[in-house]
Amino acid sequence: MKEDLVNRWLLLVLQLPAQPSNARVKTWRRLQQLGAISVKHSVYVLPNSAQAVEDFEWLRSEIQGMKGQASIFTASSIDGLEEREIVAQFQASRAEDYKQFQRDLVRLRPARRATRGRVEEKTRAVRQMRERLTQIRDIDFFSAPGSQEAERELSALERVQRRTEDRPFSAVAPLQNKDYKRRLWVTRPRPGVDRFASAWLISRFIDPAARFGFATDGIPAKDAVPFDMYDAGFRHEGDLCTFEVLQARFAISDPIVRRIGEIVHDLDLKENRFRAPQTVAVGAVVEGLRLSYADDQELLQHGLVLFEALYRGLDHNKAAPRQRSTRPSTNTRKSAGGKK
After folding, report:
1. N or C: which end of the chain has fewer CB within 10 A?
2. Residue 6 and residue 338: Cα distance in Å, rounded?
3. What local confidence, expressed as pLDDT, does residue 6 receive?
């Protein structure tokens, strides 16, 4: 505990060359992304943690690559500033971020009438705002005011947006999970992104005791439920992939599931409709799994793990703002301008 107090702050002292002129702008933007604040001329600070050390080390490498100079120090205090003043400056910076976020949300209020293309465009914009709010929370080290209000307004907008989306089966009564308990779900061999995601959706939201099998044609058991087969069961309908059909038929309204559906849709149907930033990476991992496992059951199990991890990673609503309070790496020097 005593060492944590000694190493309260992490400082980056930098000097940039006059040319190229964009070096200062690039560095300033990186500091903003990290949540660092300026406490003196060319001196920036973060709450000390292993993550902060890593962030500043990478930034120092970037600065040196632009022919600049940068040094990293730890300090328990900063000359001329009380701790409460530093904390207040961090809070003020994030509070302004939350205010600007709320101002930008106003422009996304849905119109009374919109085309399908417009609805999809607005869906992407709302999703981007969710990612932006997560980024602000990640650098909100001292619980600045405005976080709860921003979350409340964004959640309300997400609910309205979901109601305006043109989804199929709206007039069809949803299927009941109880009718699909402890069933064998059958699909084609060599599962890929849609079958990975569909099997995960089944076991996570529909049938926790689900068993999975593979068949090239026909159904191997009387009570089996086919999915993503060409001619039976739950499969592509219209412009929807199997994952989206299951989501709609079982009325799964989880917003994170909807986001996963957008990723699966673009990968499986080879479209660029939703353009989620995770799409390319998920596609690469799926292909890597298919190349790594010859056994279909083993392959599917790893696909289930992949989508469970994706769900947890996207579920930012349940994540509290990150508190960085671990010790720095041993190669970081002790303070200059602070108590040792």
Report:
1. N
2. 9
3. 67
Same domain, 250 and 196: yes
Tokens of 302: 């790893």
Residue 110 per-residue DSSP state: P
Closest CA to 279 of 337, 176, 340, 193: 193
Burial 129-149 (b: 16+ CB within 10 A, else e): bbebbeebbbbbbeebebbee
Same domain, 194 and 288: yes
Residues 190 and 272 in one domain: yes
Q: Which regions in the chain score pLDDT beneath 50?
A: 1-4, 166, 317-340
249 within 8 A of 256, measured Cβ to Cβ? no
Phi-psi domain of 275 (left: phi exceeds 0; alpha: psi -120 through 50; beta: other): left
Sheet bearing 37-40, strands edge to edge:
37-40, 43-47, 9-15, 69-75
Res 36: pLDDT: 97
Write out 25-77 in H/E/C secondary structure.
HHHHHHHHHHCCEEEECCEEEEECCHHHHHHHHHHHHHHHHCCCEEEEEEECC
CA 265, CA 240: separation in Å to the nearest integer?
Answer: 7
Rounded to 5°, the CA angle 160-203-262 comes to 40
Total domains present in the chain: 3
Nearest Cα to 283, choosing from 293, 297, 269? 269
Q: Looking at the structure, tell me whether residues 230 and 301 fall in a common domain.
A: yes
